[in-house]
Write a structure and sequence with these properties.
It contains ten helices and two strands, in the order H-H-H-H-H-H-H-H-H-H-E-E. Strand 1 and strand 2 form a beta hairpin. The longest helix has 23 residues. The protein is mainly α. The radius of gyration is 18 Å and the shape is globular. Strands 1-2 form a two-stranded antiparallel sheet. Helix 4 packs parallel to helix 7 and helix 5 runs antiparallel to helix 10.
C-alpha cells in the first residue's frame, strides 16, 4: 500500500500501473492480484485508508473543544486533498473519484467518519458551543460537502497555482463552516479564521500522509 500511495502521489491515480507496482514491491502481477482484485479495488483501499486517517485524526483531538476539532479536521482534509504532491491530489479524475465513492466499502468508511463527526456535533451542542437550531446530521453533511472546493476555486488554483491562494480558500471554507454552526457566530470577528484557530504544524511524510503537531 505504501508503494501504491507514493505512485499515486507522484503520478496520479489514473497513471497507476499495476505492472510497475508489482515490480516495485518485488512480487509478480498475479500475486498482486491475489491481494487486490483490480486496479479499482486497490485505489479504493488507498482512498479508504485516507478516510480512516481522517477519523483517527478526529478521534485523537480529545483535549480540544468540539468546534476546534471540527474546524481543524476540515482544514486537515482540505490540505490533504488539495496541496501539491499530496496523496488525495493524485485522485484528479472526478469520474474516477465518483466511481470509487459509490463502492460499499468506501461508503462504509465514510459513514464511520460521519458518525464520529455527528458525535462531536452533539457534544458541541451539549456544551453550548454549537447552534441547536441546525440538525446535527445537517451539520455533519455540511462538513462533508465543504471538503470539496467549488469549481471556481479549482479554476483559480489551476490558474495561480500557489500555496497562498490555496490557504486563502481553505481559511474561507473553515470560516464559512464556523459561521454556520457556532452558537455565537454574530460575535466572531471578521478577521481570518487563521487568527482564531490554533493551526497545527503540518508535516508530510514520504508516504503522502500528514502528521500534525498541535
Amino acid at each position: 500500500m505504501l508503494n501504491a500511495r507514493q505512485m499515486i502521489q507522484a503520478e496520479g491515480a489514473s497513471s497507476l500501473n499495476m505492472d510497475y507496482l508489482a515490480d516495485s514491491v518485488g512480487i509478480s502481477k498475479p500475486t498482486l492480484y491475489q491481494h487486490f482484485k483490480s486496479k479499482e479495488d486497490l485505489l479504493a483501499q488507498v482512498l479508504i485508508e485516507s478516510v480512516i486517517e481522517l477519523g483517527q485524526y478526529v478521534a485523537a483531538m480529545t483535549e480540544s473543544s468540539p468546534l476546534v476539532r471540527l474546524k481543524t479536521a476540515l482544514r486537515y482534509w482540505l490540505v490533504n486533498r488539495y496541496s501539491r504532491n499530496c496523496l488525495l491530489t493524485g485522485f484528479e479524475n472526478e469520474l474516477l473519484v465518483s466511481t470509487l465513492y459509490k463502492r460499499s466499502d468506501v461508503i462504509a468508511a465514510k459513514r464511520q467518519v460521519f458518525e464520529q463527526l455527528t458525535d462531536i456535533v452533539e457534544a458541541g451542542k451539549a456544551c453550548g458551543e454549537l447552534t441547536v437550531t441546525v440538525p446535527s446530521l445537517m451539520i455533519s453533511a455540511m462538513f462533508i460537502k465543504l471538503t470539496t472546493l467549488p469549481a471556481v476555486a479549482l479554476t483559480t488554483l489551476n490558474a495561480e497555482g500557489d500555496e497562498q491562494t490555496l490557504a486563502t480558500w481553505i481559511d474561507g471554507v473553515v470560516l464559512l463552516f464556523e459561521r454556520a454552526v457556532y452558537e455565537n457566530a454574530s460575535q466572531t470577528s471578521t478577521q481570518s479564521v487563521a487568527d482564531s484557530v490554533d493551526q497545527p504544524d503540518v508535516q508530510q511524510t514520504s508516504s503522502g500522509k500528514f502528521t500534525f503537531q498541535t
